[in-house]
Amino acid sequence: MRIAAGVDVGSTQTKAVILSDNGDVKVLARALVDTGANVQRAAERAFDACCQEASIPSGEVGFVVGTGYGRYKIAFGNTQMTEITCHAKGAGFLCPGTRTVIDMGGQDSKAISVGANGEVLDFVMNDKCAAGTGRFLANSADVMGISLDEVGPLSLQAQHPVKIATVCTVFVESDILSYLAQGKTGADILGGVHIAIAKRTLSLARRLNIEPEITMTGGVARNVGMVRALEAVLGRKMLVSPDAQFIGAVGAALFALEKLDQSFESAIWRGEHAISGGH
Amino acid sequence: MADKKEYRCSIHQRQKDLMLAWYDQLDQAAHIGNPPTVSMMISGNCVELLEGFGAVPLYPEINALQLAIRHQSLDPILAAEDLGYAADNCAYVKADIGCILKGITPTGGKLPTPTLILCNFVGCNTYLKWFEHLAKLQQAPLYVIDVPFMRAEEPSRADLEYVTKQLQETVKKLEELTGRKFDFDRFRQAVDCSSRTEELWSQIKHLARRSPSPFDAYFDAITLMGPLYVYRARPEGVEFFEAALAELQAKADARKGVYEQEHFRVVMEGPPPYPYFRTFRDMFAKWQACAVASTYSTVGGLWEFGFRHDPDHPFESVAMHMIAQNVTNRNFLQRYEQIRRYVEQWNADGVIIHFVKSCRLFSAGQGDMRDYFTKQLGVPTLYIESDLEDPRYFAEAQTKNRIDAFFEALEHSKMAASVRGGA
Amino acid sequence: MLFERTFDLCSALDFPSVCQWKQAHPGGKIISYFPVYAPVELIHAAGMLPVGLSGAGDRLDIQHADARFGSFICSIVKTTLEMGLAGHLAPFDGFLFSTICDSARNLCFVMKRNFPQMYVDFLHLPHNPSSPAAAQFLAEEYRRILTELEHLGGGKVDDDALRHSIGLYNRNRALIRELYQLRTRAPHLVPTSELYRIIRVGNFLPVEEHTAQLGTALAEFQSRSAKLRDSIRIVVEGSFCEQPPLPLIRLIEDAGCYVVDDDFVVGQSWFEDHVPSEGDPLLALADSYLNRSVYSSVRHDFRKPRWDGLVDKVRRNRADAVLFLIAKFCEPAYFDYVPYKQELERAGIPHLQLEFEEKSFTFDRLRTEIETFVESLVFD
After folding, report:
1. Where in chain A is the domain with CATH 3.30.420.40?
2. Is the pLDDT of residue C310 over 80?
């Protein structure tokens, strides 16, 4: 039986997944830690926690693929791939039929056109500002004095969602304060914020051919309000895996399995090392 | 690890020498007022006309990009912003104006106040404003050659007449300002030189159709562009490009490419991030991705599809070049067509669209260009963003991420295709 | 009220007045144009209705145009494309662009690609009026457009028709000049938030109808009696393609300003004087464009610096200050701001620079800045 792992070092959280394959690919374990300041340590902690969860010694993991923004800092990794490629792969596996991925993470958001084998056909990124990311929601929660976990459910209670014009996370704060001063409910404000983010994200995604099934991944997928808002603007339901946060790590682990399988020789595997400072 | 070998041989040094010699001439002009100098825009430039007066071109754009490559562009940009230029003004303009304000130059030598500020308006509205501001700042005379935009497939007779007449008016203006009589024979010889330089440059561009291409038609072509705009109409230019062609031809015949293995062939659209020129190149070198064509290398002139200056019709062919044969005065859809032709005839795997914040001429609407290539033609296309001059607008990790993801996907599709092919 | 109705016409995305015209003129064609200036006389003489479209303000969410035009591009370019992509431009048979700026020029060709059923054209307005060849060139360019319109509409346009159209627009422009002059003399009688609407609605109405409305408005303003307030007299300068939201114009007045001159819809009073009715009408229009146009950020004439035009405008209107109102990401306006600012400083004329977006609907920050500026001048 082959055992492989994927480690996804994100800006806010690091995820690890261990897969086994004895003809049938199974998720053995998953782990999640806060990334914090030391990326290398975060990767190690996530991986170790995952091995513990799976009750296997780390030496038994045949291959480790790192992904995410910190992928070059995973010293124990065998190689690395971008999270775009890994998200597509992971989404294709966990949500069969996926043809479009909408990923909303802590600091960036992206949309990916996915082929039948989980391959990336095309992608668009918003990696330059917080609009449409978890950061936007976190800021809004802060301004309103509520916790991030409450924003989604509260937004669903909106009766008359307010109009949010700006996509700038800095300026939206003053808009929110202004609405609070006008006596608007938290639900209506958050309803408006979620709709604005959904429209912004889909505006980005429309650079691709948005085709069903549409799968949502990333930390923000746990926000039920965001899922509903996106579905409302899309006009159709999306697939959301309970493992939405781990999709990047799952994809990385799937590539690791393929490597073990020796079925995947390519430029990517040409002796590239994931030691920090590498390319 | 991918081989990062770059194109570097004798022609590279010769290019540097030629450009330094040009800056020396400008320094001399600054000190003794001779030869006369004329500021011009690179796009659709009429450097041939200057030869009729023995005048030397001054290219504010080259000053700007030289500063950026030497990592000196931020200070002048900030100086210009202090004066009131906005964050969203073209950073080329800010860097150039900033230099004049601070009295700095890319090489440390002096730059002259030009005899004439000649705005060859070929599409770029920013050019008009830039040169208006230069004229005000430097207290030098300004003349605008208004070149009708390519709003139809071909220029009209009226377009050609209008430009030709303005070229003749420019001649009169320069006679007044330099006190020299226009030497029509020298002008014609200059046009003849240009036609020969262009032939050589076109052949060089066509060498990139070989597999492997002997040079990178983006990064290396940009390096070769300096002599193309300064020396095109002079014998030194012809010599330079003869040597360049010979060298590259030899490489091509020996099947030597830019990298150990030419793994990917791409068409590049948009100017480079000059402050990060080397870093940017490394991101493509890692994947052994070679540019086989680029639109930016045709801003000064588009010669790979057959156009040549014609010494038998010097004014008319100069006019034609300015109207129809440079990427800036050609309309946006014509650029799509140009890129499509490169993808097909230069056999490229994909298109890289580099959106630059400063340049709306290049960048406004590139999302639609992307739509055309991905959805209409099914050509793999990558969209990346930064700036051509301002070092503050380059997100290295994010740009690298997008480039890596793009080539990962291309790699997978090549693998899949070869598996299918072999089965 | 006249002014309420007019603004609805300017804002409604289903273009009711335009559709009405189409119904009343079966087979009639409607040609829209992007600001700032367009030779509307050509369109009118061809029996068609010219409509000046200035984006969709805050009435249209940008859902698709963002994918084509990304960051650092002004909103009007995106909302114009969005209108097209969302189907709102169905009543229009053609769209005329001109040499305004790089973003707008690229928009022309993106529209051409995406709406192949529309007649989309680009008019090259000269940037070297010093050349004796420019008038002939522009006249031929107008002839080219006219030929296209003739093909579109079916029917030749002769010189008499052109002269007639020119005459009508001369009259319209003359009334606009009169209204502006009245406002300069008696700003308390002519609120800019009203004047703006009555002029801008001319972008949507047949010129004959608009001229009649202008006449009514002029009489209405002249007959008013109002107290002259202690407001400061300002010139608003913005090289406007993208239009400020109406609440912003009101805000400027409420904050204590009389706008004694502006370039909000400068294209509608583009000529300093009548376009001559003698001789070749196309040449007359061309010559007027080259030699008798008001200064503008989108027109380049190295014989007469634009910044001298601004200082002159301030003095002519006895203004106390200049308010630069620049649409976010408007590159021509940002560029011109520098020499404008330098010359105003040399002339000792106070000024304030603000940014706006057509789609804004909250203005707290802008209000604070304008009020502070007014206070600084009043309590000097």
Report:
1. 2-89+246-269, 97-240
2. yes
* Mean pLDDT (whole number) for A255-262: 86
With a cut of 90, say whether residue B298 has pLDDT above it.
yes
Average pLDDT on A19-34 reads: 94
CATH numeric code, A2-89+246-269: 3.30.420.40
Average pLDDT over residues C341-345: 97
User: Which residue in A127, A184, A203 has the most chain C C-beta atoms within 10 A of its own C-beta, making it the best mutation to test that interface?
Assistant: A203
Tell me which chain C residue has its CA closest to the CA of residue A164: C361
Q: Does C66 touch chain A (CB under 8 A)?
A: yes
Distance between CA C166 and CA C164 in Å, rounded? 5
State the complex-level ipTM.
0.96
Contacts of B397 in chain A (CB under 8 A): 69
Residue B283 confidence (pLDDT): 97
Tokens of A225: 């309000």
Q: Which of residues 298-357 of B touch C (CB under 8 A)?
A: 331-333, 336, 355, 357
Residues of B with CB under 8 A from a CB of A: 1-2, 263, 282, 286-288, 367, 370-371, 374-375, 380-381, 383, 385, 395, 397-398, 401-402, 404-409, 411-416
**CA–CA distances in Å: residue B406 to residues A10, A89, A91:** 20, 14, 18
Question: Which chains touch A (3+ CB pairs under 8 A)?
Answer: B, C
For B252, other C-beta atoms within 10 Å of its C-beta total 22
CB contact under 8 A, C66 and A199: no
Report the run of H or E that residue B56 belongs to, with start and end: strand B56-58
Q: Which site among B385, B408, B419 would you substitute to test the A interface, given the most A Cβ atoms closer than 10 Å to its Cβ?
A: B408
Half-sphere exposure of C241 (CA within 13 A, CB side): 31
CB pairs under 8 A between A and C: 27
Bigger pLDDT: A106 vs C272: C272
Structure tokens, C130 = 């010093």
DSSP string, C40-68: HHHHHHTT-EEEE----TTSS--SSGGGT
Band of residue A278 on the pLDDT scale cut at 50, 70, 90? very low
B176 touches chain C (CB under 8 A): no
Q: Which amino acid is at A33?
A: V
| Cis peptide bond N-terminal to B81, omega within 30 | no
C-alpha span between C259 and C252 (Å, rounded): 8
Domain at A97-240: CATH code: 3.30.420.40
CATH, range C2-157 = 3.40.50.11890
Does the pLDDT at position A223 exceed 50? yes
Instruction: Determine the residue among B162, B329, B386 to mutate to test chain C binding: the one whose Cβ has the most chain C Cβ atoms within 10 Å.
Output: B162
Would you say A205 and A219 are in contact if contact means Cβ atoms under 8 Å apart?
A: no
- A273, closest residue in chain B (CA to CA): B1
pTM reported for the whole predicted model? 0.94
What's the whole-number mean pLDDT along residues B288-294?
A: 98
B17 exposure class (CB count in 10 Å sphere: 0-12, 13-18, 19+): exposed
Q: What residues does each domain of chain C span?
A: 2-157
Whether the CB-CB separation of B106 and B67 falls below 8 Å is answered with yes
3-state DSSP call for residue C274? coil
The model's confidence at residue B109, banded by pLDDT at 50, 70 and 90, is very high
- Write down how long chain B is: 423
**Nearest residue of B to residue C143, measured between CA atoms:** B158
Q: Which of A149-153, B267-271, B374-378 has the lowest mean pLDDT?
A: A149-153
By percentage, how much of chain C surpasses pLDDT 90?
A: 89
Does any CB of chain B come closer than 8 Å to the CB of residue A168?
no
Question: Measuring CA to CA, how many Å separate C356 from each of A194, C247, C249?
Answer: 25, 12, 11
**What integer pLDDT is reported at residue A269 of this predicted model?**
43
